[in-house]
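INTERNAL AUDIT FORM
Audit reference: QA-55
Scope: verify that the stored structure record matches its stored sequence.
Auditor: D.O.
Record contents follow.
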Amino acid sequence: MKFLVTILIVSQAMANHEEDDYAKVIIEKTESQYRSIKDYQVKMTISMKIPAFRMPKKKYTVFF
């Protein structure tokens, strides 16, 4: 029984290690894509829907 539990724990640890490596690869690829962008702009509209609080819609353009 102890042997079976040990095997399950070791296999779970190995599976988690592979998932961690896969997550790191995804993060690194995403970061490299963002680093390749030199400049861009974003247009956004902000509005709030809160009872008893009024604020008109605001439009912004953000440059990076």
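Auditor finding: record pair retrieved intact. The beta strands are 41-46, 58-63.
Action required: none
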